[in-house]
Amino acid sequence: MDIPRPELMRKRRLLRIIYSAVGLVIAALVTLGLSRLKAAAPAVDKTTVWTDTVKRGPMLREVRGLGTLVPENIRVIPAATDGRVEQRLLLPGTLVNAKTVILELSNSELQQSVLDAGFQLKGAEAEYNNLKAQLDNQLMEQRSKAAGVRSQFHQAQLQHEADDQLYKFGITAEIVWKTSQVKAEELAKQNEIAEKQVETFAQSIEAQLAVQQAKVDGQRALYELKQHQLDQLHVRPGIDGVLQELDVEVGQQVVPGTILARVAQPSHLKAELKIAETQAKDVAIGQKTLIDTHNGAVLGHVTRIDPSVQNGTVTVDAAIDGMLPPGSRPDLSVEGTIEFERLADVLSTGRPVHGDADSTVGLFKVMDGGGEAVRVQVKLGRTSVNSVEILQGLSAGDQVILSDMSAWDTFNRVRLR
Asked: What one-character DSSP code corresponds to residue 39?
């Protein structure tokens, strides 16, 4: 039979305790080591990222915007008077000249008023001619009377001269001489008065005719105005160009000021570009612009900057300096690139997906010959369409990832495979 040995039991218990303690220490050391290990860097396919190399040298600052070609000269044709649309003679897109009739309106009241104004003008002219004839007759009578007085004065003057000679020789009596003298003096005064009457009446004729002529001129102006309004029922564009819109339909009643049509001159086009409000602050009048019509490019320059912001963009007008490519027409979609300035010697690289001007961003710099990329903080400066100025964080020759790396925001290192 077995005999119990207490010292052996104690030894086994002690060994178990030692083994347990050693196991705990080993587990603690393993846990500590694992906690200090860095997380495994995720792998990124090189073919899915876009990289660029930092370089030192000149940098062209530009901004790009989409837009359309619009006519510089668009004439809106309003209705000049009340009327009813009788005919639409042309369709939008038709070439027209200044005198082409594009719409026919009708207005019976205006036609009647033109007739009335014509009759009133003829009546005023008849009154003028009648008054002139009457005044001319009265003037002739005045002149005839004056001529009779002048004839009597000359006869009395001759008689006085003859009596004066006879009186000197003592042939005639003194009373006869004095009588002829008085008569000649009286007729001289009457002749002077008659001449002044003729002159005064002639002047009054001019004044009376001027009053009547003013009435004639007023009636003629009214008639011409009505005639002009009647002629405007034949709607003409007033300029050479292309009919863009006809805003009324046959049978529609219009009032003065109603927009009837729009005509544009397609030979004078400009680019109307939409620039993001965050980039428009550097746009200035006169800056060079390259306008791409997708069928060729042409140079231009900025002529106007809209002071307001609409839907996050600023409208910029660019005049065309050269000949537009064939096929250019109003409302054609274009792309414009505006040149801000040329920087002589700066560090620059391609513009990252997330990176505004004068900001600090985290970019992955390619290391170990392209095997991995490490996140670095980069301070950006001035930006352009496809490039950005580097102020801090990178050096010439560094290669950085510019594509969107937001999926690895929690990692500071990635493996490139």
From this structure: P
